[in-house]
């Protein structure tokens, strides 16, 4: 079965998740999470990405997204490519990163196994977009995203997790200016 999932209907919102190769816990450092946030902001401002929900976990990211401009598969391709390059650089140049050699070795190992890469791979290959074509499915994925840090034991309330849109849905400021689902 092909793992090349597609964004079928550009007029619908989609739930996407993508993970670091080998589920490495990269996003335990603020500077790495900041690369993701800055890249999402850029895509929102310059590519027409609409972010309705997000959660940055230690090894993966969940989003509910849409776009009325550029096709979502193009935005996600560019986002993952750019963040891969920037995160590799950030890891390599971070003097505080005690896991540097090990993480880069694993990412190079993953890249050499995958003919689509240049001997380096940060993200797993797929996004598995799920079209949110019913209110039930939309609410289910929104709850899933916001409950993820609670289920992982990071916080006891979804809105307490800094790297999530749950605060915005609770009426508090968040790290990204998102579009709320009403």
UniProtKB/TrEMBL annotation:
<dbReference type="InterPro" id="IPR002686">
    <property type="entry name" value="Transposase_17"/>
</dbReference>
<protein>
    <submittedName>
        <fullName>Transposase</fullName>
    </submittedName>
</protein>
<dbReference type="GO" id="GO:0006313">
    <property type="term" value="P:DNA transposition"/>
</dbReference>
<feature type="domain" description="Transposase IS200-like">
    <location>
        <begin position="9"/>
        <end position="148"/>
    </location>
</feature>
<dbReference type="Pfam" id="PF01797">
    <property type="entry name" value="Y1_Tnp"/>
</dbReference>
<dbReference type="GO" id="GO:0004803">
    <property type="term" value="F:transposase activity"/>
</dbReference>
<dbReference type="InterPro" id="IPR036515">
    <property type="entry name" value="Transposase_17_sf"/>
</dbReference>
<dbReference type="GO" id="GO:0043565">
    <property type="term" value="F:sequence-specific DNA binding"/>
</dbReference>
<dbReference type="InterPro" id="IPR052715">
    <property type="entry name" value="RAYT_transposase"/>
</dbReference>
